[in-house]
């Protein structure tokens, strides 16, 4: 699951409370995503989130910010097309996890795998309130990607509990969730719902 400045606010440490509820429900990866605040502001939150994730045997990654990931010794980083190159990030982070957004581009995904990406993400598969300008990607790209990639595939973009089932059936190894998890009345219960989908499909229970 992915944090959001508005949906997981920093005031009164609401971000920590919400993230812990999701972890209790079975979330396996937490990504700190913040497009506005400087690294200096985020360091303490990142350090605390990492400790919280590890307490629940979950992985903590940082979106975009390679230097922040290095400073807090995060488990990894997730890179978009406008971020630092994966080659440069690998030199800095060594053997840390590096995930890369590939949108609807299979060629980019294969290239990223060859450049040492640990997983790739495709989407947006549905209209996303977080990224309303994102292009919608055909879900069948997951099927095509499974034929040519050996690394895990993450699905992202406008995903809800109802929509996730189809993506998992297509072969998604991970499901990235923002609005549907943080706006839920019971975050832990919603997280358990995603975990159950993976269990029913006999796939690895991972959602980010």
By DSSP, the count of extended strands is 7
CATH fold call: TIM Barrel
Helical proportion, percent range: 40-55%
Largest sheet, strands/sense/barrel:
7 strands, parallel
Beta fraction: 5-15%
Provide the structure class: alpha/beta
> What is the string of SSEs from the N terminus onward?
HEHEHEHEHEHEHEHH
Termini, distance in Å?
4 Å
Low-confidence stretches: 203-208
Measured on Cα atoms, how large is the radius of gyration? Answer: 16 Å
The CATH superfamily is known as Aldolase class I
Rounded mean pLDDT is 94
Please identify, by name, the CATH architecture. Answer: Alpha-Beta Barrel
User: Which overall shape is indicated by the principal axes computed on the Cα atoms?
Assistant: globular
Read across the widest sheet, the strand sequence of neighbours is 1-2-3-4-5-6-7
CATH class category label: Alpha Beta
Q: What would you call the quaternary organization?
A: single chain
Q: List the total number of helices.
A: 9
Integer count of domains: 1
């Amino acid at each position: 699951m992915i944090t959001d400045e508005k949906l997981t606010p920093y005031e009164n440490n609401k971000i920590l409370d919400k993230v812990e509820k999701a972890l209790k429900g079975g979330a396996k990866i937490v990504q700190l995503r913040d497009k506005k605040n400087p690294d200096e502001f985020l360091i303490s939150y990142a350090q605390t989130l990492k400790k919280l994730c590890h307490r629940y045997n979950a992985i903590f990654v940082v979106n975009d910010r390679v230097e922040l990931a290095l400073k807090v010794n995060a488990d990894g980083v997730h890179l978009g097309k406008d971020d630092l190159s994966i080659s440069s990030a690998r030199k800095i982070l060594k053997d840390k996890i590096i995930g890369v957004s590939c949108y609807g581009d299979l060629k980019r995904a294969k290239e990223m795998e060859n450049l040492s990406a640990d997983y790739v993400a495709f989407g947006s598969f549905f209209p996303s309130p977080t990224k309303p300008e994102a292009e919608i990607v055909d879900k069948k790209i997951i099927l095509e990607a499974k034929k040519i990639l050996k690394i895990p595939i993450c699905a992202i973009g406008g995903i809800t509990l109802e929509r996730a089932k189809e993506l998992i059936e297509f072969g998604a190894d991970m499901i990235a969730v923002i609005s549907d998890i943080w706006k839920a009345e019971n975050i832990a219960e919603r997280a358990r719902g995603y975990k159950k989908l993976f269990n029913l499909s006999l796939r690895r229970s991972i959602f980010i």
